[in-house]
Amino acid sequence: MKGNELKPRIGIFGRRNVGKSALVNYLTGQQVAIVDNTAGTTTDPVRKSMEIGGIGPVVIIDTAGLDDEGPLGQQRVEKSMAALAEVDLALICFTEWGTLEQQVEDWCIAHGTALLRIHTKEDISPRPTIAADRDVLGISVVHNVGHDRLIEAIRKAMPESAYRQAVLLEDIVAEGDTVVLVTPIDSSAPEGRMILPQVQVLRNVLDCHARAVVCQPNELPSTLAMLPQPQLVVTDSQAFQQVAQVVPEEVSLTSFSVVLARQKGLFAEYLKGTRAIGSLSDGDRVLLLESCTHNVTCEDIGRVKLPAALRKATGKRLDCTVIGGQSPLPSNMADYALVVQCGGCVITPQQLKARLLPAIEAGVAVSNYGLALAWCSGIFERATKIFRQ
């Protein structure tokens, strides 16, 4: 099953009192969101999971009104607009079409986000005239008009890429192959379990009907000695250097983070941006984006190991900053020479793309934890060769 983090997201946007929260309840068939005639009932975004036939599990996001007022209201509007960046499909709800609705539509078009225009009170509110080339779906929650048409429209509008995962290793690993997975267990490893990228790759190898062999770095020499030559070795990024010294050159080697980076998209940007590490100068600012939230240890990759590796490999005095979770990005991304994103195992491809788009648009080089660590270890070309081919 997918966790909430990886389900496609449908966002509901519009002014206050256009029926956004009522629409959430209508879609889910549950009293999820508070519905009231008082303007501004919804404050922070409300999320609810549901199943849509033909898509699977999705997360519905109800947002505050785009016409909210006052200093607090402005913060709510900002949160609503920020939610746009994480959705795969935006439902623009309206009883009148104006500048606010057009802003949401323009944002979606500029960022390639799918959208539907929903006239929410078809029973009591005349449908406004908007451009003839725009499709509008009319519904009435009160009179149960348009539910099936709405579900069908959502099914058609949702991009397939939002719910059909791109390949991990299906185009690399064949039935009967042997794949060695090197998974360090240190103080930064979660208690009693493997991290999500390791689990995803392990499951994918099994789905390919290949043999998966799992070991820790210090066990790798003895593991390779007792096996036929593997077709592929996948290691945790922090063990790149140690593992590369053991794995024969003729055996393909990469990392969990690199595999996941290719699946999530923007891989071409990562390849180009990683090579820019060699051009960093003293005083350059590096921004590290860590999508998950976890306890920080002395062996933390993003806050300790990667900044140290970048400084050592470049020989430069770099100013490294880490932003965790989905905290707001700096207002001026152009102040940074490099942005390095974690593997993004707990966010959707759309969220990852939206997270990095400000940097890309500002002309800032972007990389990925695994690719950056491979560059610092001197094996970047080797770690990406199997995918570049």
Element-level helix/strand string: EHEEHEHEEHEHEHEHEHHEHEEHEHH
Strand order of the largest sheet: 2-3-1-4-5-6
Binned strand content: 15-25%
Count of domain modules: 3
**Span of the ends, CA to CA:** 32 Å
Our Rg estimate from Cα atoms comes to 24 Å
Instruction: Please tell me the overall pLDDT.
Output: 87
Quickly name the level 1 CATH class of the largest domain: Alpha Beta
Major sheet characteristics: 6 strands, mixed
Specify the overall morphology: globular
| CATH topology title of the largest domain | Rossmann fold
CATH-scheme architecture of the largest domain: 3-Layer(aba) Sandwich
Q: Helical content, roughly?
A: 25-40%
Sum this structure up briefly.
By secondary structure, the chain is α/β, with parallel strands linked by helices. It has helices at 20-28, 70-84, 99-111, 147-157, 196-207, 220-225, 240-244, 256-264, 267-275, 301-314, 349-361, 369-376, 380-388, and strands at residues 9-13, 46-52, 56-62, 89-94, 114-119, 136-138, 178-182, 211-215, 232-235, 252-255, 285-290, 319-324, 338-341, 365-368.
Topology overview:
Layout: E1 9-13, H1 20-28, E2 46-52, E3 56-62, H2 70-84, E4 89-94, H3 99-111, E5 114-119, E6 136-138, H4 147-157, E7 178-182, H5 196-207, E8 211-215, H6 220-225, E9 232-235, H7 240-244, E10 252-255, H8 256-264, H9 267-275, E11 285-290, H10 301-314, E12 319-324, E13 338-341, H11 349-361, E14 365-368, H12 369-376, H13 380-388
Parallel strand pairs: 1-3, 1-4, 4-5, 5-6, 7-8, 7-9, 9-10, 11-12, 11-13, 13-14
Antiparallel strand pairs: 2-3
